[in-house]
């Protein structure tokens, strides 16, 4: 594999770390700025909304310049955002820093995947793309827990300085190792937007929002839930996040394996399982062992939906997958924002730190309903589509030879 893939993986590692590490540091950040835990949840919501709007916007803007230069600019944005978060004097400035960093997220993975595929022979493209995304999965096993440990031991600001330094390494690696490539073909927005007329594309994105939202309704507030309800020490949150990361990796691999063969059954199993586990997590959160098992299962079941949902969007985008794919990355983060906001509301209403689990269960169940509706519409469409031969005009059919 080319060394350029390592540079892309390092960038993906940094982006994955900064997205998820905040969830383990919410109590520290909230205490430092003197805001409530639900208010601190806006750091998750702001980042997620930045990805949602930034993914399609930056992807379109990225067609104006070479892919290498665009990747370097995106890493520059990432560095600036994390430095701003690290030195933020007030909470609002930190929210702004999170949004600035988030603008790099979706476009980096979208453009980076194209670059990774072009660096290798055609038969190795999938492996190259997987190599880049390995940075994201490893971030959740190593980067997020380590960042949480640093933040709890030395200070959360140090965590964001370290993440910014990772961005610098990624930027230098891209500048040194990624070859110059011609700028992408111009994006015709009318053609790209036509993909969103397909109801299956919209349903898949809605499933993405609700299903992924179910995961982060619980995980956004995992630190206060585990320390105040389960009775874990603050430092134990690090290892709980390792379990979540391992679950993510396992679920992602399982979802990827079945996405080509049993896509809809995979979604049914993952979404129904996720809804059940999240509902039971309300009770399991009071027991240390059951809480740890639940966290791993939430990571596995939630991320088992990622490959099939992404593939379903691409399958129905009909020749305009670039923008649809980028928007679906934004949809994952819209789910993050929605669930973080709803979770904050139920906590602020005095329902307790386990209340977001019920929010997540409802969101996952709603995604399951949409999956059933989507499959039903697809079956009806296939049944109602006339056979090509029978639909041909009578005069266009060739006369059958006479048989004696």
UniProtKB/TrEMBL annotation:
Bilayer topology term: Multi-pass membrane protein
Superkingdom classification of source: Bacteria
Keywords assigned by UniProt, alphabetized: Cell membrane, Membrane, Transmembrane, Transmembrane helix
Signal peptide: none
UniProt biased composition (Basic and acidic residues): 395-404
Subcellular location: Cell membrane
Record domain Major facilitator superfamily (MFS) profile: where: 4-382
PROSITE patterns in the record: MFS
Principal location listed in the UniProt entry: membrane
Region (Disordered): 384-404
Stretches that traverse the bilayer: 42-61, 73-96, 102-121, 128-150, 156-178, 199-224, 236-254, 266-284, 290-309, 330-352, 358-377
InterPro entries tied to this protein: MFS, MFS_dom, MFS_Efflux_Transporters, MFS_trans_sf
PANTHER family for the chain: CHLORAMPHENICOL EFFLUX PUMP RV0191 (PTHR43124:SF3), PURINE EFFLUX PUMP PBUE (PTHR43124)
UniProt name for this protein: MFS transporter
The species this protein was found in: Streptomyces aureus
